[in-house]
Amino acid sequence: MKRLTIAQILHQYPFTVEFFQQNRLDITGFEQLCFEDYLEQLDERELEEKAIDPKNLPEELNEYIRQMSIFLGLEKNNKVQSLTILPGHDKKAVPENFDELVILPSQIVAIVGPTGSGKSRLLADIEWAAQRDTPTGRSILINNTLPDAKWRYSPNNKLVAQLSQNMNFVIDLSVKEFLRLHAQSRMAENEQKLSAEILAEANKLAGESFSEDTPVTSLSGGQSRALMIADTAILSASPIVLIDEIENAGIDRRKALELLISQDKIVLMATHDPLLALMADRRIVIRNGGIDAVLETTQDEKKLLEKMNRLDCIMQTARRELRAGKTLHPEKIFV
Amino acid sequence: MNLIIFSGPPSSGKTSVILKVIESFQRRKINVGAVKFDCLYTDDDKLYEKAGIPIKKGLSGALCPDHFFASNIEDVVKWGNKKKLDLLITESAGLCNRCSPYLVGVKGVCVIDNLSGINTPKKIGPMLKSADLVAITKGDIVSQAEREVFASRVSAVNPKAVVMHINGLSGQGAYELSTMLYDEKQHLHSVQGMKLRFPMPSAMCSYCLGETRIGQNYQMGNTKKMIWEDGEK
């Protein structure tokens, strides 16, 4: 690294552009210098002005390159093939009531239990890849072995992506610019193709379609959710997705889940909505900080789900008709 | 005693994160105390009191808060030792985003929030760049994509730091953060002679000394002018 010129570094590790930019280092015109010589020629005044510490920067650049190389390599070869939760205990130190819970990619597991029962804690255990070192005493295995430390400490390798209830876009960009920005932070190679794919999928989920030029902040609630879900499914590096209740308005929730599992995500979903909870093959019941039971969805429940889906369909049709300014007719709605 | 220096922009969620971290220390029977630094006003000390821990607050008032921190940290450490704390946490807001209160050899944590916008990592100086740990808050109200972009920018500015997502309301992640903070083997008796990780700007101009009048004639010392092209003004 030491002997490489900035031009060579940029050529070999294109992602270092981000490092120079974020550190406010203007390297234009200095590409033929090596990084240390570049820092050397900055005068004292400029260093103080920009609050730059030339001593540590070369080492930080090395570290950045190391991390990003691991991150990029990892995406290609190092897939999560299974997530295993091993039992700990609840708040009163009572052992949890299951042997082991193995979840594979494309599987959906629902999480039920009252507010404050320990759903956040369960999620945090997974996110942190707990090794009996959290208050619940649970352990997490990835691909049936002890998880690599990178899942804990590396900022770019987070195990869990989260879709929570009150998420908003705060950034002021168009859909297109927003997706490009996300793709760039992930060093994705075919930005344009990915953006188009995400937009198409999001539009399949949203009740009303939107274009790539729509500012993300002016999307409706349903459209925002649709875009977030499609983006998380296709562009997020995290192999596990946690969903905290998808609201029923303006989005096809079943398709949303199907999209996530079609991308080989492991889906954990906190919900009390029967239409969603019963779509999962298993559900975790949380009580008093611990996993009280892991229930399989029964055949009867699956049949019930079909009936409830028909009811839901009636409600959705009525909603669509109302939106279109029509008068409701029972014979059109109850088909 | 352990000392941990928390810092971060105003309203980024420092107090909430610290209080959640303190909860996990209390469960481990670790004796924690805190000192809150602020500029003109704070009633966060009441929140710490409610959590049942020894708290002291320091208002910098007419002085630059970072200078105030540097001139008081030694007494703060004396206080902590006298109270027989296992762990002393200081909290201060980086008001102009230029400086940082971290000391060499003492753990420094920067708290920043997703809502502050994705260009924030670039705007903040040594307070973010020289922290050992970065806690990112308010992730539950922005999209996954924004969280990922924000975190990747933080790590571009400070690749060595451990970056964690903390929810200051639910406490998700706070326990994990606490495990990275306390070191049983560290016994800090004094910070005398320790060094700031990054020097503060060498500012000393007539306005530092109380000048209120505007105009070239009243400006002395270390002043700096914007660059204007010919005829631009």
Fill in the keyword field for this structure:
heterodimer; A: 335 residues; alpha/beta; Rossmann fold; 3 domains; three-stranded antiparallel β-sheet; 14 helices; globular; B: 233 residues; 7 helices; lipoprotein (chain A); ABC_transporter-like_CS (chain A); ATP-binding (chain A); ABC_transporter-like_ATP-bd (chain A); nucleotide-binding (chain A)
Structure description:
The complex is a heterodimer of chains A (335) and B (233). Chain A has 14 helices and 9 strands. With 335 residues, chain A is an alpha/beta fold. In chain A, strand 8 and strand 9 (290-296) form a beta hairpin. Chain A starts with 5 loop residues before the first helix and ends with a helix. The model of chain A has no long low-confidence stretch (mean pLDDT 88). Chain B has a single domain (2-181), classed as P-loop containing nucleotide triphosphate hydrolases (Rossmann fold, 3-Layer(aba) Sandwich). Chain B is 30% helix and 18% strand.
Order of adjacent strands in the largest pleated sheet of chain B: 3-2-4-1-5-6-7
What is the CATH class designation of the largest domain in chain A? Alpha Beta
Largest sheet, strands/sense/barrel of chain B:
7 strands, parallel
Number of strands of chain B: 7
Order of helices and strands of chain B: EHEHEHEEHHEHEH
Blueprint of the fold:
The complex is a heterodimer of chains A (335) and B (233).
Chain A: H1 6-12, H2 16-22, H3 35-41, H4 44-49, H5 57-77, E1 83-86, E2 101-103, E3 108-112, H6 119-127, E4 139-142, H7 150-153, E5 160-163, H8 175-185, H9 191-205, H10 221-235, E6 240-244, H11 253-262, E7 266-270, H12 274-277, E8 282-287, E9 290-296, H13 299-323, H14 330-333
Parallel strand pairs in A: 3-7, 3-8, 5-6, 6-7
Antiparallel strand pairs in A: 1-2, 1-4, 8-9
Chain B: E1 2-8, H1 14-27, E2 32-38, H2 44-50, E3 55-59, H3 65-82, E4 87-93, E5 107-113, H4 120-123, H5 126-129, E6 133-137, H6 144-157, E7 162-165, H7 174-181
Parallel strand pairs in B: 1-4, 1-5, 2-3, 2-4, 5-6, 6-7
